[in-house]
Structures are given as structure tokens and as C-alpha cells.
Design a protein that fits this description.
Layout: H1 2-20, H2 24-38, H3 48-67, H4 86-96, H5 99-109, H6 115-122, H7 126-145
Helix pairs in contact: 1-2, 1-3, 2-3, 3-6, 5-7, 6-7
């Protein structure tokens, strides 16, 4: 078990970083503990990495909420620009959004989760996730247009 946990630690850390940011180490540790405790319940070994991703994302969100950390990671699916300042602009826009909007945008854009997966990770109804995602996109677009030229 120790070898397995050592093997997946870099993946878990990489998944935790955009969500828990400054508290990535705590989130990584919590995720590894949850994986250790829950691995006996994994029925399909082929689904291991997907299960690890789901457990890690859930634990990173929990850790982030517990310590009051806000998500500030930039959206990774925006069109790439030749302008080297675009990532800074995206991070600035994300910083201006409420924390619950940053969460759903990051879970959708960075992790590629659908509404049902986000609802499970955030422990919210699917309808709430959909409305937050809709408002988050609208707020992001509005804040993006207000960027100084």
C-alpha cells in the first residue's frame, strides 16, 4: 500500500494545487488518507485513477473550504494568446469573482467535471451547481470585458 500511495502522490498533489493552492500539502495529505481508507471499497480496479481523481478533488474542495482558501487558478481552456499578460489578466478576473464562482469554473474548466460530478464534489444539488455555473460564466465574461486595455 505504501508503494501505491508513493506512486500516486505526485498526481494527487497536481490535482490539489489548483483548488487548495496555498494549502496544497494539507489537501494532498487528506486525499491520500481518504484513498487509503476507501480503497477496499473500490470494486473495479480499472477505475482506480478516475476514483483517485474524484476522491482527491472532493478532499481538496473540503480542505479549501475548511481553511477558507479561495480558488484563484486561471481557466485552462481559454484561447491562447500571443500576449504574455493574458494569464495574469485571467487570474485577476478570477480573483474578482466570488469564491463559489471560482470553484465551479475551476472544476469545470481545469478538471473537466460535469454538473453531476461537481454536485457530488461540492455536496450541492445539481440545480444549484447549474445556476452557479451559469452566473459564474456570465460574471467572468462581464469582468473580462471590463479589463483595462
Amino acid at each position: 500500500m505504501e508503494d501505491l500511495l508513493l506512486h500516486i502522490t505526485p498526481l494527487v498533489r497536481k490535482l490539489c494545487l489548483p483548488i487548495a493552492h496555498r494549502h496544497c500539502a494539507d489537501a494532498t495529505q487528506e486525499a491520500l488518507l481518504a484513498i487509503y481508507r476507501g480503497i477496499r471499497g473500490l470494486r473495479e480496479p480499472a477505475a482506480f485513477y478516475g476514483w483517485v481523481r474524484a476522491v482527491t478533488t472532493r478532499e481538496a474542495v473540503r480542505t479549501s473550504k475548511r481553511v477558507g482558501q479561495r480558488i484563484t487558478e486561471e481557466l485552462s481552456d481559454l484561447p491562447h494568446s500571443a500576449d504574455p499578460f493574458v494569464p495574469i489578466d485571467v487570474a485577476d478576473v478570477m480573483d474578482r469573482l466570488p469564491g463559489y464562482h471560482r470553484e465551479v469554473l475551476t472544476l469545470r474548466a481545469y478538471y473537466g467535471l460535469d454538473e453531476q460530478e461537481m454536485a457530488a464534489v461540492l455536496a450541492l444539488p445539481v440545480g444549484t451547481v447549474r445556476s452557479r455555473l451559469f452566473r459564474a460564466r456570465r460574471n467572468f465574461q462581464s469582468a473580462w470585458r471590463q479589463q483595462p486595455a
